[in-house]
Design goal:
Elements (H helix, E strand, L loop, with lengths): L22 H17 L15 E4 L5 E2 L6 E4 L2 H18 L5 E4 L8 E5 L10 E6 L2 E6 L2 H14 L15 E2 L2 E5 L5 E7 L7 H13 L4 E5 L1 E2 L2 E2 L8 H4 L16 H13 L3 E8 L4 H6 L28 H17 L4 E5 L8 H17 L3 E5 L12 E4 L7 H8 L3 E4 L27 H5 L15 E8 L7 H8 L2 H10 L7 H9 L1 H8 L32
Parallel strand pairs: 3-4, 3-5, 5-7, 10-11, 10-19, 11-14, 14-15, 15-16, 16-17, 17-18, 18-19
Antiparallel strand pairs: 1-9, 2-8, 6-7, 6-9, 12-13
């Protein structure tokens, strides 16, 4: 196959015959001209990927163009075939190509794309190898997750027009070479608070897609808080019928049925994302106390709460009925959640202090362990006794925390979410229309310029499980608000979680991030045009067409 033409100063359209052309000839000539104009920019560089891959070896002589008759062939394994179908679903809308999927015991590109599942592949459980040659594309991995991440890289190497929901005129060129990639941390996540404001299932699924695009593999759902209880618990039905009917500002609230939650979990799993449900205890529980006042210390129902203050509510740690409640709730949520984690909150319980607090936490940790799950909690859990597998989520702002360091010495691992770097509900700048500033303003560079492996003084890198970017929603009321605060900072956190520290480079990142802007625009995704990023000044708007464009490259 011919390689992508070398860019020249001007594009020369195909000549029109001297005789009077018919309409079909004119249309074909116009499409050829458009394709030539689009081609002159050449393919993306192999390094134009977010997060930055572990190792990149470009081969300028091996560029490849996706032909209209390309086939996607995958290993004869359900995991590989699932990723192949996802790849086809990503490519079909914009290309208009049929891209049939087939399987083989020995998949080879043969001018198309091969997804190869190989137990002996080198990059590890989530790693992959991507080879682009003049003969086609090959993604090799040991697991379905690795293949999926290779596909996300492949997606970014195609022109931004690949994000179009309609067929467009484009020369679907890929840069030649090899990428070998594997993540730095096993836990790479983001949190969505659906308690302060409730978000429909479709909005959550859209957030899942954003995480998947940048190789994040955990979605932490903050399901309960003072302002609303968002997940059905059959044994305590009023948690949602009463406690789920409020939200910040007095809106109607809402909740997820078991079927809704199962849909979120399944959709996330299909994109190799584990859902981490959080039931916040013992504080942040006003919505539960409104529904079941027997859980309150004074057994009196408090009024529903729609403000944004914290630290005033708590379940009664001296009443055995509280522990029946905790066991029932965590048991039902655990049964609905195939992942290994249960997040029990533990933060800002200002009215439950000292030994009463640690005693409560230790009982809850044992309940989680008895359910066969690993307990996750905010770093305020640190003083409690250790249980096997315990993970603390650290959200401090100064990197000094002797209590957390002591918990790590006793066996805890850390998810790092510093409030002044990773909290995506913080404003970008003073004039950002939504968000907070209690932890400071977080522009894209501040979100990027820190190291999860060394951020908490005294915690060794091997004790850091990973990184997570929380998005609290006191001021967030719509999907557009979510996207505005997520993007472009989410890719910065994703790169910290995925890429080796040696690849950390702000100048490189800002240029690679800028290339994501046209993709988001084409896909209809809201984002903040951060002034420190050199976004393209005139975003490319693909020309839509109604019929597939035949590929003109020789094969």
């Amino acid at each position: 196959m011919s390689t992508t033409p070398t860019p020249g100063p001007t594009a020369v359209p195909a000549p029109v015959p001297a005789e009077e052309p018919d309409a079909a000839t004119l249309a074909h000539a116009a499409e050829q001209t458009a394709a030539t104009l689009l081609t002159t920019a050449g393919p993306h560089r192999l390094t134009d990927v977010v997060p930055a891959p572990y190792h990149v070896q470009p081969d300028p002589a091996a560029d490849w163009v996706l032909p209209a008759d390309a086939i996607i062939v995958a290993s004869a394994d359900p995991a590989a075939l699932a990723v192949a179908e996802q790849l086809a679903d990503l490519l079909r809308p914009a290309t208009g190509y049929p891209l049939p999927v087939t399987d083989s015991t020995t998949p080879t590109p043969a001018g198309g794309i091969a997804l190869v599942l190989d137990d002996n592949a080198d990059p590890g459980a989530e790693g992959y190898r991507l080879d682009i040659t003049t003969h086609g594309v090959r993604v090799t991995a040991a697991t379905g997750a690795g293949l999926f991440y290779g596909v996300q890289t492949l997606r970014q190497l195609l022109p931004a027009a690949i994000e179009s929901p309609e067929p467009v005129t484009e020369h679907w060129a890929l840069p030649g070479g090899t990428i070998t990639d594997t993540p730095r941390f096993p836990y790479r996540g983001a949190m969505l608070d659906v308690a302060r404001h409730f978000f429909a299932v479709e909005d959550v699924l859209r957030v899942v897609d954003h995480l998947a695009r940048y190789k994040l593999n955990h979605l932490h759902l903050h399901l309960t808080d003072d302002q609303g209880w968002r997940i059905t618990v059959d044994s305590w039905p009023k948690l949602t019928t009463v406690g789920g009917t409020t939200e910040v500002g007095g809106g109607p609230g809402g909740h997820y049925t078991t079927a809704d939650y199962a849909r979120i979990v399944s959709y996330a799993a299909s994109r190799h994302i584990t859902v981490v449900p959080e039931i916040d205890l013992p504080g942040h529980t006003n919505s539960a106390l409104v529904a079941y006042p027997e859980l309150a210390p004074d057994k009196t129902p408090p009024p529903p709460y729609t403000g944004t203050e914290v630290g005033f509510s708590y379940v009664d740690p001296a009443d055995e009925r509280t522990y029946d409640f905790v066991a029932d709730v965590l048991g039902e949520v655990a049964a609905l959640t195939p992942g290994p984690w249960l997040h029990v909150g533990g933060d800002e319980a200002f009215k439950v202090k000292g030994e009463v607090y640690t005693g409560f936490v230790e009982r809850v940790q044992r309940i989680v362990a008895d359910l066969g799950k690993a307990v996750v909690g905010w770093h305020q859990l640190a003083p409690a006794a250790h249980v096997d597998g315990r993970v603390l989520q650290w959200w401090g702002t100064n990197g000094e925390d002797p209590t957390t360091v002591d918990a790590v010495r006793r066996g805890a691992r850390l998810i790092v979410s510093p409030g002044n770097h990773a909290y995506l509900d913080m404003k970008y700048a003073a004039d950002t229309p939504i968000g907070h500033d209690w932890a400071g303003l977080i522009d894209v560079r501040k979100a990027y310029d820190w190291d999860p492996g060394t951020h908490v003084a005294g915690v060794p890198a091997e004790a850091v499980l990973g990184v997570e970017a929380p998005l609290w929603t006191e001021s967030v009321t719509s999907l557009a608000d979510i996207e505005l605060l997520l993007l472009p900072r989410l890719p910065a956190i994703a790169e910290l979680g995925w890429s080796p520290r040696a690849r950390h480079d702000w100048a490189s990142f800002r240029d690679r991030l800028a290339s994501q802007g046209p993709r988001w625009t084409t896909a209809g995704i809201t984002y903040h045009r951060a002034p420190e990023i050199p976004w393209p000044t005139t975003p490319t708007i693909p020309t839509q067409r109604t019929t597939p464009q035949p590929d003109t490259a020789t094969r």
